[in-house]
Specification:
- The structure is a single chain.
- By secondary structure, this protein is of the alpha/beta class.
- It has three domains: 145 residues, Rossmann fold (3-Layer(aba) Sandwich); 154 residues, 2-Layer Sandwich (Dihydrodipicolinate Reductase, domain 2); 70 residues, ACT-like. Chain A, domain 2 (Alpha-Beta Plaits, 2-Layer Sandwich), CATH 3.30.70.1150.
- 37% of the residues lie in helices and 26% in strands.
- Strands 7, 8, 9, 10, 11, 12, 13, 14, 15, 16 and 17 form an eleven-stranded mixed sheet that branches.
- Helix 2 packs parallel to helix 12.
- The protein binds L-homoserine.
- L-homoserine binds next to helix 7.
């Protein structure tokens, strides 16, 4: 029997207990022994839940109990998760986490510490919820130089964008609906401003490059400025709008960003709707491979966490290498990244079009029958820096979206 402790009895923590209970035969078969939840740490009491018998309010009994071999950290946030993870690893315990804030900020350090202590630090659920992506990247897509990772990495924003597109609704009312349905947090900033997706693409970039990609270095734009009109234009262009995390390897330099993109209707990520996530990985030998599934949710996320626990059970005596060095990866200068841009500016007379042509050169104009008083166009591929310069010259911009 292997004893584990679960830190945090929220959505994911209670999901972990549920997966271990409901699927005990299959979990135990894969683990090669019985997986037993010995402790659950939470500040709250759960008097009506059978978990109350295992509940502790302090980390000390867990870290001091030599019978506990695996600590599952599903509290979220960097602290106290980081302190607990470090203490657990230093005490010779394996750590599995779903916590992207912790992994993005301290992943390299905790991996190094785990290696030194001959235990494992696993984090499958930190990106893409239930979608297997970390382990496949580390154990399957290992013969390839990864050219690009492009992902729909946030379920809340994908739900909002899908609903805006399908129902012609505006951002604010869809956000309210998402909050009422429990998809979006009361404070949705991390999701709608792209910060959550940014941490996830930072983790994937770190794994792809083998070095520390700091999320603070990643250009990040959310979806708060996307309007119903943008979706109307996207339709004219036979495209949809998705919030993408992109990590690209250009001649050995990594360029990473999070932003809404207009993508073609036949793009592999275009049909990913609602709260689903998907990650498209392009390798230099493999070409495209797509990982799709539930990027959030109790059971799906917990399934990924328990798969990590099982992996620990299979590797109790040794560290499974995950190559993610402490050395900082210097990202490519975002200003030099090239994109096409869809742009809307005020005014639709000839003077405005002359101005657009003189500043942007060749552009492709887009018309939308029921939108008046503005000009919309798609630029040729230009650098981010050039785009900013041109857009400052033109003035009266209503919005822009990158086009893939
Ligand atoms: N808030 C996240 C999302 C949860 O909406 O995808 C999963 O990380």
């Amino acid at each position: 029997m292997i004893n584990i402790a679960v830190l945090g009895y929220g959505t994911v923590g209670s999901g972990v207990v549920k997966v271990i209970n409901d699927n005990h035969d299959i979990v135990n078969r894969h683990a090669g022994q019985e997986v037993n939840v010995k402790y659950v740490l939470d500040l709250r009491d759960f008097p009506d839940d059978p978990i109350r018998e295992k509940l502790v309010h302090d980390f000390r009994p867990i870290v001091e109990d030599e019978d506990v071999k695996v600590v599952v950290e599903v509290m979220g946030g960097v602290e106290p998760a980081y302190t607990f993870a470090k203490q657990a690893i230093n005490a010779g315990k394996h750590v599995c986490t779903s916590n992207k804030e912790l992994v993005a900020a301290k992943g390299a350090e905790l991996l190094r510490l785990a290696r030194a202590n001959k235990v494992n630090f696993f984090f499958e659920a930190s990106v893409g919820g239930g979608i297997p992506i970390i382990r496949p990247l580390m154990s399957s897509v290992t013969a390839d130089d990864i050219n690009e990772i492009t992902g729909i990495l946030n379920g809340t924003t994908n739900y909002i964008l899908s609903k805006m597109e399908n129902e012609g609704a505006d951002f604010e009312s869809v956000l309210k609906d998402a909050q009422e349905k429990g998809y979006a947090e009361r404070n949705p900033e991390a999701d709608v401003e792209g910060y959550d997706a940014c941490r996830k693409i930072a983790i994937l970039s770190s794994l792809a490059s083998g070095k520390q990609v700091d999320y603070e270095d990643i250009y990040t734009e959310g979806i708060t400025k996307i309007t119903e009109s943008d979706f109307k234009y996207a339709k004219e262009l036979k495209r949809t709008i998705k919030l993408l995390g992109v990590s690209k390897n250009v001649d050995g330099t990594i360029y990473a960003m999070v932003a809404p993109f207009m993508i073609k209707e036949d793009h592999p990520l275009a049909w990913v709707n609602g709260v689903f996530n998907a990650i498209l990985v392009n390798g230099n030998m493999l070409d495209d491979v797509l990982f799709y599934g539930q990027g959030a949710g109790k059971e799906a996320t917990a399934s990924a966490v328990v798969s990590d626990v099982i992996e620990c059970c299979k590797n109790l005596k040794h560290n499974v290498p995950i190559i993610w060095d402490y050395d900082k990866c210097q990202l490519g200068d975002f200003g030099t990244a090239k994109h096409k841009f869809f742009v809307r500016i005020k005014g639709d007379d000839l003077d405005v079009m002359d101005k657009i042509d003189s500043i942007f050169g060749k552009v492709f104009y887009v018309k939308c029958a029921d939108i008046k008083g503005e000009s919309a166009f798609v630029t040729e591929e230009i650098t981010e820096k050039d785009f900013v310069e041109k857009i400052n010259k033109i003035g009266d911009m209503l919005s822009y979206i990158r086009v893939k």
